[in-house]
Amino acid sequence: MKDVLGYLLGFLGFVVGFPALMWWASERPFPWAPTPIVAIISAIIMIAGLALSIWAIVHMKKVGEGNPFDAYNHEVAPRTKHLMTDGPYRFSRNPMLLGIYIYDIGVILWLLSWWALFVFAVEVIFLTIQVRSEEKRLEADFGDQYRTYKQQVPRYFLK
Prior knowledge:
It is a single chain. The chain is an all-alpha fold and 159 residues long. The chain has a domain at 34-67 and 83-159. The protein contains five helices and two strands; from the N terminus they run ααββααα. The chain has helices at residues 2-26, 36-64, 95-111, 114-142, 144-152, and strands at 70-71, 74-75. The protein has a two-stranded antiparallel ribbon with strand order 1-2. β1 (70-71) and β2 form a beta hairpin. The termini are far apart.
């Protein structure tokens, strides 16, 4: 049951919640559609971001035997049993969040709003604080193995 709760909270928060907040902040009418070319580019970016996040979640479930959702040291779902260093985790220590950030960039492009960009910036700050908390837990759980991995792989996408 904890697995389902973690996935549901992640979906509601990141795929629905933050984009809805971006839309609300943008003051765009509902429904809102940009020009066709912007809509197509935005949709491609959003789909790519979701695909990366889903790949990371499936990989974590299969290989790590756990769930990613750990909210500020409060376990919402069972923690992974193995450190993820392959699959999408070869390129990013946080491919789920990277996918969500890519998805959000597609939402921002769709809305064409500085206010949506502001909401995104707040989200990135909020989640970076969360990631730093998770990194401390991962160091405690996996020790030198995680510290070595941390030196080799960027937090998001650039080292």
